[in-house]
Design brief:
By secondary structure, the chain is α/β, with parallel strands linked by helices. The protein has twelve helices and 15 strands. The chain has a domain of about 220 residues: NAD(P)-binding Rossmann-like Domain (Rossmann fold). Helix content is about 40%, strand content about 20%.
Length: about 325
Amino acid sequence: MYNKKNVLVTGGTGLIGRPLVEMLIQQGAKVRIASLDDPSRAHPEAEFKQVNLMYLENCLKICAGMDFVFHLAGIKGSPAMTMKKPASFFVPLLLMNTNMLESARRCKVERYLFTSTIGVYSPAEIFYEDNVWKTFPSENDKFAGWAKRMGELQAEAYKIEYGWDKIAIVRPANVYGPYDNFDPENAMVIPSLIKRAMDGENPLVVWGDGSAIRDFIYATDVAKGMLLSLEKGIGQVINLGSGTGVSIKEIVEIIVDNMKIKPKVVWDITKPSGDKKRLMDISRAKSLGFQPVISIKAGIKETMAWYEKNKNIVNKRYNIFGNL
C-alpha cells in the first residue's frame, strides 16, 4: 500500500516516528518528516522539515502533495510534569492536532492516522476502546487526555460533515524504546530509570512500592500497529498495547540485571505509586493482524544498549518545556 506514496510523518524523529519512518522507506514510500528536533535525529533517506506545527500555515505547507499522513507529533512528559505545566501539554496539543487535520483535509490527503493516547481513559484495570466517552480522563491525565479527545472528536466531525472516513485513530499504551525522552526532569518511568541507573545513580531511588502494573509496549511494535491501522483499520479507534501487565518492580529488576555495576534499589513509599493496574484490551488490533513481538526484557535491553551508544543525540530532542 505504501510503495511510491508520498507519506508525511509528524514527529518522525521521535520514539515511534523513527522506526515508523524506517518501515515506510523499506516499503518504498517517499517520506517527509516534520519535527522540531535536531536534524541529526532524522532518517537520512527521508526529507526533513524542521517546522512548528502550532501554526496553520506551516501545516498547510508540509501537507501539500501528501497521499498519507501519520500525525505522531505531541508532548511527552512525566505525570509530575503534567501537574506542574498543564498548559504546556494542553495548548500545543490542541493547536497541532487541529491544524494538522484541517490542513490534511484542505490538501486532500487520502488517508490520515491520528495518534491519541492511553491518557484519554478513565481509571480502570482494563481499557476498552468503546468505553471512553462514557467517562472522563483520569485526573492525572486530564489536560493531555482532553486535548487528545478533541482530536478524536475532530475526526468524527470531519466524517459527518465532509464524508472523510479514511481516518484511523490509535491509542498507544506506555511506549518505550530508542529515541525516547530521557530527560530526568520530565521523562516517563522506563527511560528515566535507564538514564539514572546507567549514569551511575546509586542507590537508585524509585517512587512507590513497585506493585503498580502497567501495559508497556516497544516502539517498533507500535509502529507496525500504525501501519496496519492505516491500511486495515480506517474509521476505527484502535488500542495498541502489549495486552499484558508488568509491575514497576519487574522493570527495575530487568534494568538492574543488565547493569555491570548493580545499584542498590531504594523504594520511596512516601511517594505515590499511581493506579494499581492499567492494561489495554487489544482484541480489535489483533483482529487486524497485530501481534506485539518484543518482550519487555528484550525491549529494555535494546533500549539500554541504544542509550549507551547514543548519549550524544539524547539531548538533541526539542524540549517544549524549556522552549515555550
